[in-house]
Amino acid sequence: MRYPGFMKTSAWLGFIFLYAPIVSLIVYSFNASKLVTVWGGFSFKWYAELLQNDQIIDAAMVSLKVAVSSATLAVVLGTLAGFCLSRFGRFRGRLALSGMITAPLVMPEVITGLSLLLLFVALEGMFGWPSGRGTTTVIIAHTTFCMAYVAVIVQSRLASLDESLEEAAMDLGAHPSTLFFLVTLPLIAPALISGWLLSFTLSLDDLVIASFVSGPGNSTLPMVIFSKVRLGVTPEINALATLMILVVAIGVLAAAWQMRRQTRRAPAA
What PROSITE patterns does UniProt report for this protein, alphabetically (predicted)? Predict the structure, then answer.
C-alpha cells in the first residue's frame, strides 16, 4: 500500500530540515543591522565591507589555491590507484594497497592531521624540507585524503565499464598508453569530474587537518571563519558564506550540465 501524501510530506520536511538554515543565512546576509537575528532592512553593505577585508580575501585566495591544487593532484593520483585496483587483478600487496587507500576515509581527521604534522616535522629535521609549514604542506595533506575518495569513485566507474570497448581498441592495434588516454579516460570522465568536485569541496571545507599542517600567514578560509565565529557571528560572515554557497552551486550546475552533455553524446557515438 502506498501513501503518496506521507511521502510528499516526508520529502518536504527533509528539504526544510536541510535547507532552512542555509536560506536563513542567505537572507540575513542582506541585513542592514549589525545584529544577526534582528532584521534592520535590506542592504548590500556587508558585501562591500567583506570585499575590503584583507584578512578574509587573503585567506580565500589561499583556500582556492590549496583546493584547486589538491583536487587536481588527487584526481591524478587517485585515478592511477583506482586503475591499478580495477585492472591489474590480483597481485602481491593488492590487499595492503586497497586498505591504505580506504583508510583515510574512516580515519578521524584529528589523527590524520597529527600524523601529517609529525611527518612534516620529521622530514624537516632530517632533510630540511619542508622549511616551515605553509601552503605546500596543506596541499600535500589535502591531497592525501582527497585521493582516497577519487580512487573509490574511479574504481567503481571502471568496475561498471564495458571492457569490450577497450578490447576492441586493442584488437585494432592501440598501444596501452593510447588506449588509456583516448579510450579509457573519456569513458571515465564523469567520474573524474565528480572526484575533482568532491575533492575541491572537501579541501575548501577542511578545518581540522589544515589547523595542524598550516603555518603563520597561511590560514585557510575555514580557519579564519572559525576564529571569527568564536567571537560572535556577524553579517559579514553571513555574506562570506553566501558567496561560498554561490560558487559551489555554480560549480555543481556546470558539472551536471557537462555530464548530461556527455551522456547525450554517448548513444549517438
Answer: ABC_TM1
- 3-class DSSP assignment, residue 215: coil
User: What are the distances in angstroms from CA 118 to CA 101, 138, 157, 158?
Assistant: 20, 14, 35, 36
* Rounded-to-integer distance, Cα 185 and Cα 180, Å: 6
The predicted structure's pLDDT at residue 150: 94
What proportion of the chain, given as a percentage, has pLDDT over 70? 96
- Looking at this protein, which amino acid is placed at residue 144? T
Entry pTM: 0.82
Cα 143 to Cα 139: distance, rounded to the nearest angstrom: 6
pLDDT digits (tens, 9 = 90+) for 124-174: 888 888 877 889 999 999 999 999 999 999 988 888 887 787 778 887 777
The number of beta carbons lying within 10 Å of the beta carbon of residue 85 is 20
Neighbours of 69 (CB within 10 A): 18
Contacts of 188 (CB under 8 A, 6+ apart): 79, 154, 157, 158, 161
Cis peptide before 130 (omega within 30 of 0): yes
Q: Which of 239, 234, 237, 226 is nearest to 27 (CA)?
A: 239
Give the largest Cα separation in the chain, rounded: 71
| In the block, residue with C-alpha cell 568496475 | 159
Would you put residue 133 in left (φ > 0), alpha (ψ -120 to 50) or beta?
beta
> What are the residues whose beta carbons fall under 8 Å from the beta carbon of 266, sequence distance 6 or more?
none
